[in-house]
Amino acid sequence: xxxxxxAFSFLILxxxxxxxxxxGKIENAVEENSKQIIKIAFGSCNKHDVTNVFxxxxxxxxxxxxxxxxxxIYADTDDMVKLKAMYRAQNAIPAYAKLKENVTITGVWDxxxxxxxxxxxxxxAKKESQEAFYDFMGLAKNDKWRKKEGTYSTVSIQKDFxxxxxxxxxxxxxxxxxxxxxxxxxxxxxxSDPSKTILGDAQWKWLERExxxxxAEFNILVSSIQFLSSEHGFEKWANFPKEVExxxxxxxxxxxxxxxxxxxxxxxxxxxxxxxxxNPLVDxxxxxxxxxxxxxxxxxxxxxxxxxxxTTSYGIVELNLKSxxxxxxxxxxxxxxxxxxxQMY
Length: 345
Known about the structure:
By secondary structure, the chain is an alpha/beta fold.
């Protein structure tokens, strides 16, 4: 063989070795990344009978879990035949069915899938609706979460560098009647009656216990209604200010790490941040999946960071268990990032 052929063969071998080394490094980096990052996708306010455009994007993202943020269908009925038919129709959407086959699903309900617009404790079909909701979420008939009143639950994701605990809050089943507002443009106003509640006694005890005993690197509270945004006149935690203070106190006293709130309901998406905690408390609102408040112009929110997104969107939360950095993203169609926020914990 000529010297040229020897040199050419050596060059091919060298390039091949370098290529294999590079490929190995990339594969190792991807594997390491998958061990330390937990990827969450979530969204709310979804109609089964209009085009659902985001499921293929979410599936391509390959999240560790998808979280429903409430108003997962728009039923507004105490007729369980109708409500269950809507859940079946949502499950039958091909792209969503494929997501369910490949990704863990969890979440909460809000008023429209609960069955009563702005409804709470007074809804007479809530027990039947709870069963239908659990069926939609795919819980086994003998699952422990079915044995209590209310749809609150816990899901944990464990990886090599730690865990994330997801606490799904039920803001409907026990919630006291709202106080109507006499101010034009506002539906409701703050009610300081100490007997009024959002979560109810049993759920409050469960939540305090779960946060106090948590060893997770991050603790995600899923609330169908906004927690931090308090100046608008619609449904929100601030309609019950004593409940707001109670949750803030529990978060602080529990010393739970990396507490984050995910919320829905509003048909807008935004980041709200309260810095009066050991780590800033982020309330990431993502709403809605199929319809949005497109005529939105402005609304006060002293906790807001960045801009309000008033087009359809879904949310992504990427939690780095090693570096303790969290990236929050508001996503549009075709995986477009509409707004982003980062927080170290």
